[in-house]
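hey can u check if this looks right to u? its 231 residues, i copy pasted from the old doc so theres a chance i mangled smth
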Amino acid sequence: MNDLDKPARPMTRADVVRFMAALALARPEPRTELHYETPFQLLVAVVLSAQTTDAAVNKVTPALFATAPDATTMAALGAERIGALIRTIGLWQAKARHVAALSADLVAQHHGHVPGSRDALEALPGVGRKTANVVLNVVFDQPTMAVDTHIFRIGNRTGLAPGKTPRAVEENLLKRLPTSMLHDGHHWLILHGRYICKARTPDCAHCPAFEPCHYPGKHTRLKAATNGHQR
């Protein structure tokens, strides 16, 4: 096992705070990169983003939301016509069915409004814990952690919140991060994983949280980047 593959030792409380503070300084006003205008549109966009990039979702939602901007019109549109508008994203057929069904449920059970409780959200078709966490965080300002592939990777690679499952990483983040950092922490970590702490090629040379990070391979990555720059 080389340095790049070794598991990171868990951060101390002080390092957790330093790590998150560095991300906060780099992105003082973090926001989701999904495009939406209403809570309903955010919910739909997050459902569509499963195993698909935000950029890909943002290419299909303008036409989708122009045709069906709310739950009532989306339910009336139906899965087949929804599918025709989102065919370029992964798993589009299943997602079209979910969006049609959740829209119908919102109309029937919540007067077309997005509910603000986890249980109600997770009862909707196609809405799991991660999607519910995103909606609760962004729309209802709750200090939730939606552990996607980026946050799961960072939690383990850096020692911030190690865990064998997304739920374990989520629970460790909620325990280890200061309360004041929980709300924005969701987006700080996602954006950091998307642009800096990438899966195959973490950009340690440009990491704002290099010092408190416990990633065993960070010095190797930094040296490689420095040598490449000198060439």
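The mean pLDDT is 93.
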